Amino acid sequence: MRHHIRFYLGQTLHEVSDISPTLTVLDWLREQQGQTGTKEGCNEGDCGACTIMTVRLESGQLTWRSVNACIQFLWMLDGAQLFTVEHLQNPDGSLHPVQQAMVDMHGSQCGFCTPGFVMSMVAYVQNGGGEDPKAINTALAGNLCRCTGYAPIVRAMQHACRIMVEQGNHFDVAKQNIILRLSALQDDSSVDIQSHCGRITLPASSNVLASVYLENPQATLVAGATDVGLWVTKHLRDLPHVISVRSAKDLHKLEQRDGGLWIGAAVTYTQAMPALATHLPDALETIKRIGSTQVRNAATVCGNIGNASPIGDGPPLFMAANTILHLRQGHIRRQIPLENYFLEYGKQDRQPSEFIEGIFIPDQSAQTVMRAYKVSKRFNQDISAIMAAFAISVGTDGTITQARLAFGGMAGIPCRAKMAEKALLGQKWDTPALEAARTAILNDFTPLTDMRGSAWYRSTVSANLLTRFFEETAQHGSGQPLRLEGWREISHA
Ligand SMILES: Cc1cc2nc3c(=O)[nH]c(=O)nc-3n(C[C@H](O)[C@H](O)[C@H](O)COP(=O)(O)OP(=O)(O)OC[C@H]3O[C@@H](n4cnc5c(N)ncnc54)[C@H](O)[C@@H]3O)c2cc1C
Ligand code: FES
Ligand code: FES
């Protein structure tokens, strides 16, 4: 058992044992290290001014991730190397190519957002990102600028990509050193830090997690902290004892198992994305719109379920895909259909000390068509007003054998439109079936009016999304679903 965390800030090793469970990386950098290059804008993961880059060893490979320092706790850096804008200049003192490109392409005015943009860009190029403006937009969707405008910033990014292909950069040169350093930080120890500020437990395995949580049911589980971080920065909550999910190595499993995809509780959206792209290709464009690159780099798939938000994007998607939730309390394990986890607003089928070990998404059959639609005021980096995920299976006789129509934003919990599903079962996938489902869905929900949409808007859009699903998947007149190659480009253009 270790009683301190250790990580590198730039080239300097830090071993820290006397820290609060809620000390954020941003506050530590600015207030305790005097490194004020990393800015504080919103303090809730939205603006990207606080973007930093963490480097970790994952399965022997270096991963370079941009994350929001304002909603990452310092203890989450255990085993990592952290780079901020202060660490970018070349050994000869000249600017990093990304910084130089921002100067050359006039990518900065007041400069407040600039360190965050630069760090997002540096992480993007370290991950092999190229000049494609669409990919650059995705990489920068979590960075807001109020004065320059984005065109010069994207041009700077493209310019930097060209320069780095030609010249490389000092992070590439230092890769072997970073691997050696980070390897030396890896061990199989759990960490327990108890101080006057509170307690921090980083279990090395799910077995340790299960037993610590059993003894401390009042503790707060923290995975990527993209929700929990806001409890601290916005609701000023104290967290006397935190237990890390992501420190448990075996919870990082992401694998194709017999009949489906297993996603362990520590797997982030960024890590899961390639597997989800294969497994649920029709949902990929929606998954890419969950938060921003920085958020997806930290946010776990299971944390998206654990928070049980009625407007989370993952739950409807995985419910439509017939996902099984794996829960564990001590040595006792159970499995439930994901939809049964959500009982009512703020209440889940989870016992004290019970945690999510992972989810299992069954392979989709060849007879199933699926689509997912996220409706939000902004395209990127916005919480959904409505999230819908639909899957229907059609038998050889052309009738619908299974319908799973799952929604977020329509009720206090993510849930299925059972009456609309019933209206579809046994029918051909044709216009009368669509009309019956459209009528039924209005009785499925009594949505709320809030800042994201009125009750009328939500009801209308939920029915219209069914029409969109029909238009994208039905072969008019045949009653058969259509698998149209390239539909994704059409529907997400
Ligand atoms: C700027 C921003 C944008 C966002 N945009 C979106 C969006 O577009 N769509 C969307 O759906 N969400 C969005 N979110 C919300 C959030 O990112 C997701 O819900 C995320 O997946 C949560 O995962 P996490 O690992 O960060 O969870 P954490 O914050 O670590 O935990 C969330 C909750 O789940 C519990 N928990 C975590 N792991 C487990 C476990 N293994 N077992 C039991 N309980 C557990 C925690 O105790 C906590 O209650 C956004 C958040 C931010 C800050
Ligand atoms: S300060 Fe805005 S994302 Fe962190
Ligand atoms: S340059 Fe002023 S906020 Fe971006």
Query: Residue ranges: pLDDT <50 for 5 or more in a row?
Result: 483-493
Tell me the β content. 15-25%
CATH homolog superfamily of the largest domain: Beta-grasp domain
In the CATH scheme, what's the topology name of the largest domain? Ubiquitin-like (UB roll)
- How far do the termini sit from each other? 52 Å
Give me the count of strands.
22
Q: Mind telling me the C-alpha Rg? A: 23 Å
Count of discrete domains: 4
Shape: globular
User: Could you say which small molecules are bound to this protein?
Assistant: flavin-adenine dinucleotide, FE2/S2 (inorganic) cluster
CATH class of the largest domain: Alpha Beta
Mean pLDDT: 93
Helical content class: 25-40%
* Strand order in the sheet with the most strands: 2-1-5-3-4
What keywords describe this structure?
single chain; 493 residues; alpha+beta; Ubiquitin-like (UB roll); DNA polymerase, domain 1; Uridine Diphospho-n-acetylenolpyruvylglucosamine Reductase, domain 3; 4 domains; 5-stranded mixed sheet; 19 helices; globular; disordered C terminus; binds flavin-adenine dinucleotide; binds FE2/S2 (inorganic) cluster
Characterization of the model:
With 493 residues, this protein is of the alpha+beta class. It folds into four domains: 5-86 and 176-244, Ubiquitin-like (UB roll); 97-168, [2Fe-2S]-binding domain (DNA polymerase, domain 1), CATH 1.10.150; 252-362, Uridine Diphospho-n-acetylenolpyruvylglucosamine Reductase, domain 3; 369-491, Enolase-like, domain 1. Helices cover 34% and strands 23% of the residues. The protein has 19 helices and 22 strands. A five-stranded mixed sheet has the order 2-1-5-3-4. The longest helix has 19 residues, at 455-473. The radius of gyration is 23 Å and the shape is globular. The structure holds flavin-adenine dinucleotide and FE2/S2 (inorganic) cluster (2 copies). One FE2/S2 (inorganic) cluster binds next to loops.
